[in-house]
Amino acid sequence: MARDAETTRLSSKGQIVLPSSIRNAHQWKAGTEFQVQETQEGILLKPLAKQAASRIEDVAGCLKAKLRVSLAEMDAAVIKEAKARHARGRY
Predict the structure, then answer these.
(1) d(CA 45, CA 36)
(2) Which of 25, 50, 64, 77 is at 20 to 30 A from 7, Cα to Cα?
(3) CA–CA separation, 12 vs 14, rounded Å?
(4) What domains are there in the chain, each with its CATH number?
(5) Which is more confidently placed, 49 or 51?
């Protein structure tokens, strides 16, 4: 898919803005991750494959728990943290 050349500029932070026509054509949104490869012709950007969202049923129990707590203890900890954050002006 050859396109007319467009120009962009490297910022002082090392950032390059991809022209909107290219972003729109590929449906790339903010947060899209790319693999960066140096080639003989220049730099190649390859978008990383999107990972399917995990379902809780597929990942539940995959980590070994070091601590077992009851639902009541978890609820109490969540409420305690929410109150602490509220007190600090977070919510």
Answers:
(1) 5
(2) 50
(3) 6
(4) 1-49 (2.10.260.10)
(5) 49
DSSP string across 44-85: EEEEPPPPPPPPHHHHTT-SPPS----HHHHHHHHHHHHHHH
β-strand pairing of 34-38 with 43-47: antiparallel
Amino acid at 56: I
Do residues 44 and 36 touch, judged by C-beta distance below 8 A? yes
| Residue position matching structure tokens 């601590």 | 67
- Tens digits of residue pLDDT in 9-36: 999 999 999 999 999 999 998 889 999 9
Residues 80 and 87: beta-carbon distance below 8 Å: no
Q: Which residues contact 3 (CB under 8 A, 6 or more apart)?
A: 21, 22, 25
Q: What is the mean pLDDT of the chain?
A: 86
Tokens 């399917």 correspond to 52
